[in-house]
From TrEMBL, chain A:
It comes from the Bacteria. Residues 8-288 form the CRISPR type III-associated protein domain. The lineage of its organism: Bacteria, Pseudomonadati, Pseudomonadota, Betaproteobacteria, Neisseriales. This is CRISPR-associated protein Cmr4. It holds the Pfam family RAMPs. GO terms for biological process: defense response to virus. The keyword Cell membrane does not apply. The keyword DNA damage does not apply.
TrEMBL record, chain B:
It holds the Pfam family Cas_Cmr3. It comes from the Bacteria. This is CRISPR-associated protein, Cmr3 family.
Amino acid sequence: MKTRLFHLHALSALHVGTGQGVGAVDLPIARSRATNLPIVAGSAIKGVLRDEFENEKSPNKLKTSDIKTLFGASANDENQNAGAVAFGDAHLLLLPVRSFAGTVAYATCPFILKRYQRDLQNTGDDNIPKLPQPSKDAQTVSDSQILIDGNKIALEDLDMNAKVDKLAEEWAAKIAEAVYPDNQDNWRQELTQRFVILPDDVFSFLADTATEIRTRIKIDREKRIVDKGMLWTEENLPCETVLWGVFGVAVSRDRKNPKTADELNQLLPEKELHIQLGGKHTVGRGLCRLLIGQ
Amino acid sequence: MANQYYWIDALAPLVFRSGKPFGAQSDTEDIVFPLPSAAAGLMRTISAQQQDGFTGEFDSGSLKQIRSNGLFLAQKDGSGSLKLFAPKPADAIYLKNKATNQIEIIRLSPKDMSHTDDCGCDLPHADLQPVQMDGNQKKSPSGKTFWALDDYLAWLNGENISFAQVDKNGATLPAIEVRTHVAIDGETGTSQDGLLFQTAAYDFANPKKDHHTGWHDTQMGFVIASECVLQKDNDLVRFGGEGRLSYLQKVALPADTFRLPEINSRYIKLTLLTPAIFAQGWLPKWLNENDLIGELPHTSLKVKLKAAAVERWQPVSGWDLANHRPKPMRKAVAAGAVYWFEIEENQSINIESELKKLAYQSACDDEQDKRDGFGIVAVSEWKNNF
């Protein structure tokens, strides 16, 4: 199966929920059962992409027969076939965290970079930085905007020692290149100057506690006060979050449209798509750039 | 042909449905440890894909000849080394000792009751001996359902191992993740009526540590033993339901991973590493149902069945990818079952070299079940008789 990487860049708060909540937040985001890190289910990305390729007004519109081959037959279709493309879950790569200096830091950690490195290797990328050594200090780039006095950072209510690290610079450049392939308006620099590799324990704490919680209410139209019981909280991944995932393209399983994996792969070009993912789209959630890699 | 070993590195939680019909309400019970045939099917599909693109014009007959020898729960640590697990043998039970209040592993062994006049049992055959244990224990809380392969082999070799050791080295199945899916109506932008469903899946990713202290450096996965030699040692594959992705990577295991313990007597045990399907329910067809005597598969050794410890049967079904229909449901003997045998006297055969031919091979009756990896057995000496 042809392995390709995609990156998902949130342009607004992103709410891919579980439909239920048992904790303090009424509508939490989906998280991995094992790692507790936020995820966007591959099925959500697949569904939205299918919709995008079916949309008559979309510049990305594909032929109906190719959509059936790529994404599988509808449940009521007479001729059933499995889809040729399979989407993995999108995993958190960069979490924007409130920073005392530089406004926001784009944080990641060695645990995440190790899994990201594995996926890069499996796409045949031969220009992958080494993993940073475990450290109790945060690791930043040399021209970092988030450093205070050159050796400290303060994220949310945590302050900690930080040091400039060459591998952090290499990873920042690698991720910035993937998220901004065109480097339009120096967005790469905006990202790299706020990039930080945090220790795993600090990152796991922030990934749990530094997501965005919005409280919403519903107003009674006549009384202009809050409807009884109509106050709830929603968890979101903050705007500017970056996730990554893997998808695979196999040969056609559609006997009426036989195509090789390479031919089908060409239908999913290497480009940037603007999509809406997850719930609450009428209040602006889930506007994303989907960057499909090679 | 020698086994090749492949590590399944799951990229998302993997779905392995139980035998419940589609459309029934799914829940966290609706998931089972995958059948060995799932692994055999995966190897055949990937083999065909790598050779000719799996165009649908493949020769299903020759693909079905590809033999796999089981699917094992495994764990990979930060350095990349693998640890394999085997299902708890049915002749080991966890019980709490009333005197010491400690949990012990009690070994079940057949007991000859032919000399007693005042008691009996209603086993399916008069020659079968019941398996028994010493008293003075009471039922304990459950323990690890999968044992580290080294502990497992030590147990098979007659060594007594502690509950603490098994608990420390063993494993349970990974955490189950339940996802709720909806289908969105393209026109109204709302979820479609009746198209809400749940999937339960094992999440194999590195588990988080308590109190926000990062993640464990071990992750769970599977190791497939197969005679299939793939063209690509590392591939992206769909394993289980919902088209969830995994990496399939060829790995090397130490040569003595699956070893045959020393056998110095005519008494042996076969312990199932994978579920087995036999023509006569719990009883293999290669044993005559009248006298319980037969020839061990892959060998010329004539044996007599003396006892068996068999737990609840397991349903075996699945989806027939070639014919696009569900497979009929069959009953399998669950993995972990133990069969005790006495090798018949006056056979001029080297017992150990014969048993090597059977060790870690299938003891099923049907040739296709054998190729699918059902009924893989570990062979050991029956030492601890009363």
